[in-house]
Known about the structure:
DUF2207 domain-containing protein; DUF2207; transmembrane; single chain
Amino acid sequence: MRMTLIARRVICLLAVLLGCALLSTRADANEAITNFHAAIDVAEDGTLTVTEEITVQAEGDQIRRGIYRDLPLIFEMASGRKARAGFELVSVERDGASEPYRVERSGDGVRIYIGDSDVFLEPGLYRYTITYLTTRQIRFFDSHDEVYWNVTGNLWGFPINKASAQVTLPAGVTASRWDGYTGAYGQTGKDFRSESRSGSHQVYFETTRPLAPRQGLTIVVAMPKGAVVPPTEADEIGWLLSDYSAEIAGAFGLLVVLGYYVFAWGRVGRDPPAGVIYPRFEAPEGISPALASYIEDRGFAGQGWTALSAACISLAVKGKLVLEQLSDGLRLELVQGGGTAGPWGGKPVSADELPSGEAAVLRFLDRQGGAFSVNKDNGPSVVLLGNSFRSAIEKESRQRYFKSNLVFSAIGVLFSLLAVVGIINFGDVSGDEIAITLPLMIIGTVASCMLITVVNSLSGSRSLLQRVGSIMGLFFVLIVLLVLGGASAVAAFSEGSLLTLVAVLIVATNVFFIALMGAPTALGRSVLDAIEGLKLYLEVAEAERMNMEGVPRMSPDHFEHLLPYAVALGVEKPWAETFASWLRTATPAEGTSYQPRWSRGAGFDAHNIAGALSGTTGALASSFSSSVPAPKSSSSGFSGGSSGGGGGGGGGGGW
């Protein structure tokens, strides 16, 4: 019985000891690089053949399918210019047998994934062998040539229990001196031993302590001058072209895009020469006041409210509607059966004879029951009125007076996209460069479009408040573009690449020429000349008007006939002043007072006709623009050497 009890205690003790041993074994079996050895063979032409043997302890944590190896290829020359080393992968093996792999290239180097994505490794030791060729790694000095090589890299996430390297120089060449460094990047630790072999034809390095994660071994071996054939002038030129392939591709692409746009603009985007401008006493035939505004501004300036106001004034003087000024806006009211313009015998105009924009206004008012108040309460309806009016004008004038030449612009955008793709494909652009460039391109595009919009708004602004708002918007956009240009320059020089600057210039070229590509047709040019002549007439004072040959006699009918065009062209005030000046000297038969029958409500001062009419027409445009609801915003990397220096380097991990 006593023996049985002793046996049970012994068994329990053995079980505890065995469990502790297993736990200890598992605790000691952390993933690590147990051995990292690199054989670096130097050829006479400077090519390095590097064979890395990396033995790892895999436990299925990070190393599940295999490992990956990062090899940087960008280095900085003595001049400070960044250059790219050549690289050719020869073979990849695991435990002496070929192993599947894939190579991912970036602007900074390559990453070699070793292993099969469908095969998971059992825990254990695995030896990976990577052989590759690399060029432009020899450093040439006045007194010697040298191999400066980061053996392990400083970016491994695993400890390296032992690291070693053997440098084999070209036949008949012996090392003059050598050194090494250990530790994290920039440190100058000396935890290694080294020796020469084969009469200093080979130099061997080995660490004397384990390296922690992100620590590495870097070596430097000097050779007599001339041991390696230096690059020829042709080699230097070829390397220079290779180093700046992205910039060359970008500059070529920019020149192609710029050249195309200059050609296209010269062919279809250049405005026809203007004709002789002289005062005209009538509007161009078939051109309504709203259409005159649209043609002069080459589109709808200020969202088209001035053109819409001109259309309403035109309807009013034709006797089709009445404008009534209210305390909170303006009221438009249809005149049933209206067809004469005031008491001076204006010619009746039928609805079928109205221009398309004015007809759209009448149809809208008819749907509103014949009357409509332009105020904030009816803001959504004002938007509908504006949309239907603009659509009618654009449909009437599309491609007749102006050609947008969008096909030519689209070809330019296509060339630009091909240029960007060429830069990325042929230039080995880094992820960092893309991450910097794309946002700047997007911001540049948006800011440039905003600049065009603000400039157009400024040119079309009628009131002081609108002009102040446009100037503030212009100031803001110019600041954005200035900051963008500075950021592009800083990014270009800090990254050692002009890619960002080239890309932003491509964007700017597109925005600039797309804005210029539209041009008036021959008919549009002649109409523009006629409109300019009419505007010239409407701006002159009464005394100057009387000196013109063939000028029509002023009358209330003539004044009201051209008043909508004056509103459309932004010269209603001088036109009203001309009329007021005439009225003061008119005979009783011609009429000595003026009260427009198409305008009701407070605000019209018969003693200040120019101010009253200017106020009425200005209030109309202001009522339209101020009634529109505001858009909603969205919520919510021998001398001065250190660990990590030289060629090679990088790091790796498991996957």
